Amino acid sequence: MIKVSDLTKEFSQGQERTQVLKGIDLNIEEGEFVAIMGPSGSGKSTLLQLLGGLDVPTSGNIQINNECINKMKEKERTIFRRKKLGFVFQNYQLLPTLTVEENIAFPLHADGKLTNENSKMVQELICSVGLKGLNQKRANLLSGGQQQRVAIARALVNNPTVLLADEPTGNLDRAKAEEILSLFLKFHRENKQTIVMVTHDIFAAGFADRIILFRDGVIDQVISRKDSDYAKYLANFMA
Ligand SMILES: Nc1ncnc2c1ncn2[C@@H]1O[C@H](COP(=O)(O)OP(=O)(O)O)[C@@H](O)[C@H]1O
Ligand SMILES: [Mg+2]
To answer: Where is the ABC transporter domain (predicted)?
Structure first.
């Protein structure tokens, strides 16, 4: 589903060049829920931006569904992103004066295809993220947890191949974070939604099938729920 090979990313400011990703190899299966974990500045968001086609690598390859997104022209990549990917960010990034319903339907408008069928799907999504009755409420009047629910519904409205989330619980307290992570789990289990979630929080990472631990631009460790020492690993981290 996602195949990343020998991926590097360098940023230059003036004369100075920093290599942020130093050769990443990574395969993610269809239907997998993966957490990218690691300390601040280790390159997690940079990797997610590249996976999402929001930026281009310095070298290496990224295949999503057998399409090589780093070889696409910008316009082609934008279309791919709109059709195939869903994004959730730490700060929700909703349109504040639009309603819940309008925010969720927004990606459909961008494609000019708001049909009856789509409207029905928007209503279903509102229910499945637990916002029933709030259709007409303006986004800026919602709590943080509710805003993130809207953002998740918006990310899923195009039925994306992959849901990409960058610190989706970073602005939420533990209880609200757990609710949001449970929603991710629900879509992962019930719809086999492929999810790649960046987090620096082991509690959040513990919801995934596999944790990819980043350190300083390289993959330091990979641990899977199937591994016999998975629980011990998590416990050690939390201690
Ligand atoms: N657009 C950019 N220009 C220059 N440096 C950047 C840019 N984006 C990220 N960086 C640098 O890359 C490093 C990794 O950043 P990031 O991927 O955001 O880390 P993380 O998400 O793991 O905290 C940081 O040192 C950051 O300053
Ligand atoms: Mg980050």
So the answer is: 2-235
